[in-house]
Design goal:
This protein has 335 residues and is of the alpha/beta class. The protein contains 11 helices and 14 strands.
């Protein structure tokens, strides 16, 4: 059954200018970024933004990130910009960083989920930047998937998720593969709400201030309570199969116990494991955090396509470069 949220068909040959025309007309368009594909609507059009929530099955009080073509569009949405936020944007825009800033009254209220703050990001993707420049407006864009599920990193993933009813601007596979880091800049000191591929140390070096965790900020009553932010629910990024995080020894022990009876199981691990059953799917996890981030969501989607019921993922190194991937896997395993 086709969703009433969409009226257009999938078009892989869509140009950024054509996609922008559909956005200005109040329609939804999926678009590429370096992180994941977004489900976009004109951030200034509350009715269009409401169609995003309907299409995803997302609660209307969960804010969306507004994608902009550059720093010059920030003042349209933000009532103020702290100096440390400006330093972060100078260091990492365009790039996989979302900054949450105080929102101007009457601007992008639906996209902000009714909050008095707004998340802004300038993506580092040539097709996305051409698209956003042609839109001449900010584009509200959560990941182009059903709420709580695995984010898409190719145009085909979006098509698999929504079928022929959604217009998709194809920009190829996403280079980063997991969503942006989110830094709350509304509380007088930067607060990390969601990790990404940019490490905490890199963020602190750029902004010149220590980054607080959400728990630290709330514990010290720093300003008001932290704003709601995308992708921070306990359960998120979840495939249909059950994800379990295990160390390499536990994976091998479980495989040995099941032997040739093991079935409908996928193993995603850096370690080399012995598998006696042909009904176990094995995919090697890269040793590098960035490479793992780039392929993570595609791997989880592929496991679902292969019909597995359990996904055993080897626990990650403790190094901070893995924090973004670790965050996504912990939330996927909580489903």
């Amino acid at each position: 059954m086709k969703s009433e949220a969409f009226t257009k068909v999938f078009m892989s040959s869509l140009t950024p200018e054509q996609a922008a025309a559909h956005i200005r007309a109040g329609e939804l368009v999926a678009f590429p970024t370096e992180t994941v594909y977004g489900l976009g609507a004109d951030a200034s059009n509350d009715a269009a933004v409401a169609r995003i929530f309907a299409a995803k099955g997302r609660p209307a009080d969960h804010p969306l990130i507004v994608h902009v073509a550059g720093r010059h569009q920030v003042e349209h949405y933000a009532s103020s910009v702290p100096p440390f936020a400006d330093r972060l944007m100078q260091a990492f825009w365009p790039g996989p960083l979302t900054v949450i800033l105080p929102r101007k009254p009457g601007v992008a209220s639906a996209a902000a989920g009714g909050q008095n703050s707004v998340g802004l990001r300038c993506p580092d993707h040539p097709v996305a930047l051409a698209f956003l420049s042609a839109c001449n407006t900010g584009v509200a864009g959560p990941s182009a998937n059903r709420f709580g599920r695995v984010s898409p990193t190719t145009a085909q993933h979006v098509h698999d998720e929504f079928g022929d009813d959604l217009l998709v601007l194809d920009g190829g596979p996403c280079a980063v593969g997991i969503e942006s880091s989110i830094v709350d800049c509304t509380r007088g000191q930067p607060v990390l709400l969601r990790p990404g591929v940019i490490t905490c140390a890199q963020l602190e070096a750029a902004c010149g201030e220590r980054l607080l965790s959400k728990d630290e900020a709330d514990q010290h009553l720093l300003g008001s309570a932290s704003p709601r932010a995308p992708g921070t629910l306990a359960s998120h990024y979840a495939p249909s199969a059950k994800v379990r995080l295990m160390d390499a020894k536990a994976i091998q022990t479980a495989l040995d116990v099941l032997g040739t009876d093991a079935a409908h199981i996928a193993v995603y691990a850096r370690a080399v494991v012995r598998i006696e059953s042909s009904r176990v799917v094995f995919r090697r996890m890269p040793d590098d955090a960035a490479a793992t981030a780039q392929q993570l969501f595609a791997a989880l989607r592929d496991f679902d396509v292969q019909g597995v019921k359990l996904i055993w993922v080897e626990t990650l190194p403790k190094d901070a470069t893995w924090d973004g991937v670790r965050d996504r896997l912990i939330r996927a395993a909580a489903h």
